Amino acid sequence: MVSSNVFEYSGLQVEQAHFKLQTQFLTPPVAVSVLFVSIVKKHILVTELNTQQMSKSKLLRMDNVGIVVESLDEVIAFFIELGLKLEGRGMIEGEWAGRVTGLGNQSVEIAMMVTPDGNSRLELSRFIRPEVIEDHRKAPVNALGYLRVMFAVSDIDDTLDRLYKLGAELVEEVVRYQDVYRLCYIRGPEGILIGIAEPLTKQ
Description:
Elements: E1 2-9, E2 12-19, H1 22-25, H2 28-57, E3 65-68, H3 72-82, E4 85-94, H4 95-101, E5 106-114, E6 121-129, E7 149-152, H5 156-164, E8 169-170, E9 175-177, E10 181-187, E11 193-199
Parallel strand pairs: 3-6, 7-11
Antiparallel strand pairs: 1-2, 4-5, 5-6, 8-10, 9-10, 10-11
């Protein structure tokens, strides 16, 4: 007879088998080997399903989030202090770019910021031509549209202390969510809204 319960292994939920007769028919090392093989097979199955889903949707990843700013230097310095790295900076100009954005013969200076793990990016843009015509940076938290980017940090208090020196302002307060996160919203340079969260459990 076999009973099972669910546990997590490498981010996957798998079934753990408890063989009531294993003491009679299987030595502990063999029982562990059987369980490990079962886990690996399930992991391979999930990986194959994810690969099939990617192949069907053609989606590879989320590449970056864009933020339009007035002062690249100030905003770059802020995100560097937060922990991001400046990956590159340059001009995007010409009619070809306008065919993407719908802005015609545009001229934009951009800076690409990347997180320490290399998986997430912010594209900061400063429009030279055409001029900026709307400003949503200080819209309230419940406004429609893009709102904020959330960053995970190892020490929220230290992070806030460093960002306060660059003019960051706490929106309300740092809140503890159960035993999972301490988190808050802050306004950075030019009123840019970002979230910061410190995991309270080991990742």
